[in-house]
């Protein structure tokens, strides 16, 4: 019996070709669902990566905001009778505000209370 298989449970002979056709139709029925799930997985991964990027951007904006707040506080604390900006170990001071000239002096490590 070439190409035929006897199934005692069913009580009749069935063709192997029809079994293959049934298996193929089952696979083709599942293919659209699998494709949809792959597309949705990709979309979910893309959404997760975008939310991570926006979280990083928000964290960066918060840190920049904190830094600018700290810089403003430092500038307020440095103001006295003259304006000054610190650049590492040097301080740019403007002895007379009306002249608009700056003098770079080395910052002292020891502070002397006047």
Description:
By secondary structure, the protein is an alpha+beta fold. It has a domain at 79-114. 55% of the residues lie in helices and 19% in strands. The chain contains one helix and five strands. It has one helix at residues 16-78; strands spanning 4-7, 12-15, 83-87, 90-94, 103-106. The chain has a three-stranded antiparallel beta sheet, with no helix packed on it. Strands 1-2 form a two-stranded antiparallel sheet. Strand 1 and strand 2 (12-15) form a beta hairpin. The longest helix has 63 residues, at 16-78. It is rod-shaped, with a radius of gyration of 39 Å.
Oligomer: single chain
Shape: rod-shaped
Helix percentage range:
55-70%
Mean pLDDT: 61
Largest sheet: 3 strands, antiparallel
Q: Return the structural class.
A: alpha+beta
The rounded Rg comes to 39 Å
What letter string, H or E per element, gives the SSE order? EEHEEE
Number of helices: 1
Q: Based on DSSP secondary structure assignment, what is the total number of beta strands?
A: 5
First-residue to last-residue Cα separation: 114 Å
Lateral arrangement of strands in the main beta sheet: 3-4-5
Amount of beta strand: 15-25%
Unreliable segments of 5+ consecutive residues: none
């Amino acid at each position: 019996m070439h190409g035929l298989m006897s199934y005692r449970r069913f009580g009749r002979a069935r063709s192997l070709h029809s079994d293959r056709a049934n298996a193929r139709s089952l696979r083709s029925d599942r293919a659209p669902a699998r494709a949809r799930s792959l597309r949705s997985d990709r979309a979910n991964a893309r959404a997760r990566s975008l939310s991570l990027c926006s979280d990083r951007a928000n964290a960066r904006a918060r840190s920049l905001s904190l830094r600018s707040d700290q810089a403003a506080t430092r500038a307020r604390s440095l103001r006295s009778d003259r304006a000054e900006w610190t650049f590492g170990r040097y301080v740019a001071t403007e002895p007379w505000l009306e002249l608009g000239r700056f003098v770079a002096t080395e910052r002292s490590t020891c502070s002397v209370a006047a």
